[in-house]
Design goal:
Layout (H helix, E strand, L loop, with lengths): L13 H13 L3 E5 L6 H16 L2 E6 L5 H15 L5 E3 L3 H4 L10 H13 L4 H6 L4 H15 L8 H9 L2 E2 L2 E2 L4 H10 L3 E5 L1 H4 L1 H11 L6 E5 L5 H8 L2 E4 H14 L5 H18 L5 E3 L10 H18 L5 H12 L6 E7 L6 E7 L3 H10 L2 E6 L5 H8 L6 E5 L9 E6 L11 H14 L7 E5 L2 H8 L8 E3 L6 H13 L6 E5 L17 E5 L8 H14 L2 H18 L10 E6 L6 H4 L9 E2 L3 H12 L1
Parallel strand pairs: 1-12, 1-13, 2-6, 2-7, 3-6, 7-12, 14-19, 14-20, 15-17, 15-18, 16-17, 18-19
Antiparallel strand pairs: 4-5, 8-11, 9-10, 10-11
The structure holds iron/sulfur cluster (SF4).
The site of iron/sulfur cluster has 13 residues, from α5 and α6.
């Protein structure tokens, strides 16, 4: 079998990955792949999956957590077309919110946007939908001509932003007729063999069903590729969870006044009383508590619908981007359900003046299991997907037809030094000024030995600030703030990268936006220090997860607490080597990194040395490599 592959020859270990993908897709099995940076994941999966789809009249879905990651797949497909002149079509799809061409809806929050868009389609008032898809039969006929005209220039694959721009400026018969880009993209998808999309198109059960019907595809004929799959358990859990707060209830009260829906006042007042009661009685002496369904008075379905409609009217009347009533409606439609895999939780605000009540999902397989069971083959891959068995169990991959593979890093081992320093710990029982001073002293001794940018990742902001005062350095220090906005985060990243000549010091938290999803190639980062184990707070949600995973898999402590923390540490250290020529050092500082149970989460081919003198080992390493 000649498998489509865009490059002249496979990279180190990439050939093994390609063969495994082909074996899985051609036999209807699944593959969980820990595929380190540099192995060429996208080319390794798309080639074999597309080869299978073209031969079997199937479809390949390539799912990513972020829109920015679509481009890598688009580029790979363009290279395949250039090399093989093979005929197929691919659609790059982003959610309606990003594809919407109506300038009036820009900036709306997600829930609110979808409510407004859905209402406009229901009451047939969106002209862009009419021009792209059509409400009436004559509109549908005309819309077909529009899409046909747009497709004349489409070729094999176009990135979504190009399609959106063309839809915005579309003209027909000398008249400007902007087309709903989402409706155009889904029509392109109907005739496509590859569909690049965001996670939720298939990972959310409610979106999946309507999306597949819309594009006329069936999972049993599809290979589903999930990129950056280490994100999936948490993303899915948070997607399936809902919450309300005192603040939200106060906002809902105002919305009712604006819209003149006084008859709903009594429900909001009753909800406010329930929340006050939870705050004053159930949370009198504690920060959080579990609730039962009856702690909040239930709402009938028609009342929930009324809140929903009031929220939409409020958005339309005020041009605001959020509606508390829409969020209340969503919350209550889930709260009334009874599911073993959910907990009802109340948390007191730090200020003590309010409460957040949540209905939290514990089991991501509620959304993923059915997708996996219905698909011909699912390939879940990531640069950090160990231990594979945890992802297999949490997502619901069947043991008997799932291949689990850990591929080696193709980069020279000699370019990266991995150290464990066991002389300190951030264990709760040992946290003290003295321990923080010791951690600060080790970091201060190591810093002068690293010729370039260094990032130190802490398990929490609290520990970051406690240790910070003991770090002695001449470097410019950049510190991540707990409540920083995305623009501030981007500013810190670009400032840090620019200072790579003089060598700056970045202090941030593991699991945060500076530790995951950001690339610091080449000289932008030559040293990473991971302080402590970034364990989640041992709160009621964590305890519930541990209990639930113990009951379901007999692995509560590891799946619910330990492994996710270690995965965050490994992710943060993974920022270091992004290219073949990158050189750097990763130092893990905590006695627990030496313990067997913890070390299991390190990629097996990662050589790690335990040292009592990290500054000496780092000095030797850079003397050798520079
Ligand atoms: S139908 Fe399309 S253009 Fe109309 S509101 Fe929804 S996303 Fe926007």
């Amino acid at each position: 079998m000649k498998i489509l592959f865009s490059h002249s020859k496979p990279r180190k270990y990439q050939d093994e990955f390609i063969k495994d993908v082909w074996d899985a897709v051609s036999s209807g099995k699944h593959l969980l792949a820990h595929a380190p940076t540099g192995i060429g994941k996208t080319a390794a999966v798309l080639g074999p999956a597309l080869t299978w789809a073209l031969e079997n009249d199937g479809t390949v879905f390539f799912l990513t957590p972020k829109i920015s990651q679509h481009q890598i797949a688009v580029n790979e497909l363009q290279r395949i077309v250039k090399k093989y002149k093979v005929k197929f079509r691919a659609a790059d799809i982003v959610g309606r919110r990003y594809a919407c061409v109506d300038p009036g809806l820009e900036g709306l929050d997600t829930d609110e946007f979808y409510e407004v868009c859905s209402k406009r389609r229901k009451n047939e008032s969106c002209p862009y939908y009419a021009w792209a898809r059509g409400f009436t039969s004559s509109q549908r006929r005309e819309a077909k001509l529009h899409v046909k005209k747009l497709l004349e220039r489409y070729g094999t694959v176009r990135p979504s932003y190009e399609v959106i721009e063309e839809c915005k400026s579309f003209e027909y018969g000398g008249e400007k007729k902007p087309l709903c880009a989402y409706e155009v993209m889904t029509q392109i998808a109907k005739d496509s063999q590859v569909i690049i999309a965001d996670y939720y198109h298939l990972l959310s059960p409610s979106i999946r069903e309507s999306f597949l019907i819309k594009i006329g595809k069936h999972l049993q004929d599809s290979v589903v590729i999930i990129d950056e799959a280490h994100n999936v358990p948490n993303r899915v859990r948070s997607h399936l969870s809902v919450s309300i707060t005192h603040l939200l209830v106060r906002k809902a009260e105002k919305e009712l006044k604006v819209v003149g829906a006084k008859h709903l006042d009594r429900y909001v007042r009753r909800l406010s009383r329930d929340l006050n009661e939870i705050l004053s009685k159930k949370l009198e002496n504690k920060r959080e508590t579990l609730l039962s369904k009856s702690d909040l008075a239930s709402l009938d379905e028609d009342v929930i619908d009324e809140f929903h409609d009031v929220g939409i009217s409020y958005l339309e009347a005020t041009n605001r981007n959020k509606s508390a009533c829409v969020k209340l409606a969503k919350f209550f439609s889930l709260w009334s359900e009874d599911m073993d895999s959910y907990i009802r939780l109340a948390k007191k605000w730090k200020s003590g003046t309010g409460v957040t009540v949540s209905y939290k999902n514990l089991d991501p397989s509620l959304a993923t299991q059915d997708l996996i069971d219905s698909s011909h083959s699912v390939i879940a891959m990531s640069g950090t997907l160990v231990p594979l068995e945890m992802y297999r169990d949490l997502l619901g991959f069947p043991h008997d037809i799932t291949l689990e593979k850990v591929y080696k890093s193709p980069f020279p081992k000699s370019n990266r030094l991995n150290l464990i320093y066991t002389g300190v710990t951030t264990r709760y029982s040992r946290r003290s000024e003295e321990e923080f001073r010791r951690i600060g002293a080790v970091i201060s001794r190591v810093l002068p030995e690293i010729p370039g940018n260094v990032a130190v990742f802490f398990p929490s902001y609290d520990i970051l600030h406690n240790v910070r005062k003991f770090i002695k350095t001449d470097r410019q220090v950049l510190v991540q703030r707990e409540s920083s906005r995305p623009e501030e985060t981007n500013e810190i990243i670009s400032l840090f990268k620019k200072m790579n000549d003089e060598g700056a010091l970045l202090l941030a938290v593991s699991g945060g936006s500076l530790a995951e999803g950001v690339d610091y190639p080449g000289r932008e980062l030559v040293g990473v220090i991971i302080v402590g184990i970034p364990l989640n707070e041992y709160d009621l949600e964590t305890k519930a997860l541990i209990d639930y995973y113990e009951y379901k898999f007999g692995a509560g402590w590891t799946y619910g607490y330990l492994y996710p923390a270690m995965a965050r540490a490994v992710q943060a250290a993974g920022r270091l080597i992004r290219n073949e020529d990158d050189v750097g050092v990763a130092l893990f500082m905590d006695e627990r990194y030496k313990w067997k149970n913890y070390r299991k989460v390190f990629p097996p081919d990662l050589d790690i040395m335990v040292t009592e003198r990290p500054e000496y080992a780092v000095n030797q390493f850079f003397s050798r490599t520079s």
